[in-house]
Each structure stands twice: as structure tokens, then as C-alpha cells.
Amino acid sequence: MTLTSRSEFSGFAIEETTGHGILGDDIDGATVRNVSIRTATGDGVFLANRRTSIFLKT
User: Fold this and answer.
1) In this predicted structure, what is the pLDDT of residue 42?
2) Which of 11, 38, 40, 55 is deepest in the core (most CB within 10 A)?
3) What pTM value is reported for the model?
4) What are the distances in angstroms from CA 7 to CA 3, 11, 24, 39, 41?
5) What is the predicted pLDDT for the residue at 41?
6) Do residues 33 and 53 lie in contact, with contact meaning Cβ atoms separated by under 8 Å?
7) Predicted local distance difference test score (pLDDT) of residue 20
8) pLDDT tens digits along 8-49
């Protein structure tokens, strides 16, 4: 799943994905809550070049 600027991603289960579970690159603010990530071949959450805060909530 690709995270974009000023977005919210909530209430999903990501299972057995190739690569990162959630990828955010060059984003400006986002929220991820109530998401489970299981068996990703890359990082569960990978954030690169973020500009402001990213909120990860369980």
C-alpha cells in the first residue's frame, strides 16, 4: 500500500505481501491506525523523505 500526503489509512490487514507493507516516500503528513501487517518481505512500514509528522496508532 502506498501512503500519500495528508491521507489516513485505517482498519486493514496486510498479509503476505511482497515488499513493504506500507510505503511512504516524500509525503507531508499522514495517519496510519488500526492496521496489522504480517509476513511482509520488506519492512512493515517504510517511510522515506518525510516532510512532517506521520502518526502510527494501534
Assistant:
1) 96
2) 40
3) 0.86
4) 7, 14, 11, 24, 24
5) 95
6) no
7) 96
8) 999 999 999 999 999 999 999 999 999 999 999 999 999 999
Distance in angstroms (rounded) separating the CA atoms of residues 41 and 21? 8
CA–CA separation, 38 and 54 (whole Å): 21
Q: CA–CA distance from 46 to each of 21, 31, 58 (Å)?
A: 8, 14, 17
Residues in contact with 13: Cβ distance below 8 Å, sequence separation at least 6, in sequence order: 35, 36, 38
- CA 7, 9, 33, 17 dihedral sign is negative
Cell of 42: 520488506
